[in-house]
Amino acid sequence: MTLLMILFLHLYSSQGFSASTRRQNRLFLDTAIEEEWSALLPLGIFHGITTNPILLERAGLQCTETSVQCLAKKALKMKGCNEFMCHTWGISSDEMYKIGMNLSETDRGRIIIKVPVTFEGTKAASRLMESGVRVCLTACFSPHQTMIAAGLGAEYIAPYLGRMMDNGIDGVEECKKMQAIVSGMGSDTRVMVASIRNINAMADLTSCGICTLTVSPNIVRDLFDVTLTSLSAEDINEAVFRCGFDPIVGTDVDMNSN
User: Fold this and answer.
1) Are the C-beta atoms of 11 and 206 separated by less than 8 Å?
2) Same domain membership, residue 141 and residue 13
3) pTM for the whole thing?
4) Count of structural domains within the chain
5) Active-site annotation holds for 114
6) pLDDT in tens, 206-216
């Protein structure tokens, strides 16, 4: 069984393959580049889109309330985007609260505001939630921070796997601890792993029950880079042609005709 097959079995097999059931497990596309949305959302494997100011910068977009609101509207009009995550900003909790309210005002049901799991950020997150805003606490690097999200009742907590690994931390094991804490506290908070650098890490995470992930377009394309699958598909197509399919007219041809 290939790594790709294992990954998607873990992502989608727990309760079946219907569209509504698949969304019990959530895979997000982590980019602010609209061309990537158009190219990858039709795969049908995503729950939504995640962004942050760094991704906005890479996409050549302004990090303003108006720009992010416009981006959210575009994303949520696209088939396959059920949720859109964007990052509030500011130094004080008052600033983060105000900007978070403004960013989410166009669709409070489907826009999730990402807030850093700092002292001021948590105060802002608490106020946002009281105001009916869905929240993801982000920039998580330690399992004990998961207790903050679970205690607050935040919908998501986002650990940065790649950055943990860059700093000599076993990020996969730390994420497993985070999931155990959430489960142990009886919380509905989802551990949404971000900053994923390779598909092997995705398989490790999903195999232990962490099935909410956000991944870059490059990682998504790596999922389909399986040589044996490509060769098998080519073999099948070649067999179809040998059996009389005409690619020009798109129909069968009479192999016995002269």
Assistant:
1) yes
2) yes
3) 0.85
4) 2
5) yes
6) 998 899 999 99
- Domain enclosing residue 256, as ranges: 226-258
Q: Which two tokens stand for residue 83?
A: 């949720």
Check whether residue 192 and residue 250 sit in a common domain.
no
Write the DSSP string, 57-117: HHTT---SHHHHHHHHHHHHTSTT--EEEEE---SSHHHHHHHHHHHHTT-TTTEEEEEES
Assign 124 a pLDDT band (cuts: 50, 70, 90). Answer: very high
CATH of the domain at 151: 3.20.20.70
CA–CA separation, 118 and 123 (whole Å): 8
Tell me: do 150 and 235 sit in the same domain.
no
- Catalytic entry in 79, 114, 123, 177: 114
Contact 48, 81 (CB under 8 A): yes
Are residues 9 and 29 both part of a single domain? Answer: yes
Residue type, 190: R
Instruction: Please write the tens of the pLDDT for every residue from 161-203.
Output: 999 999 999 999 999 999 999 999 999 999 999 999 999 999 9
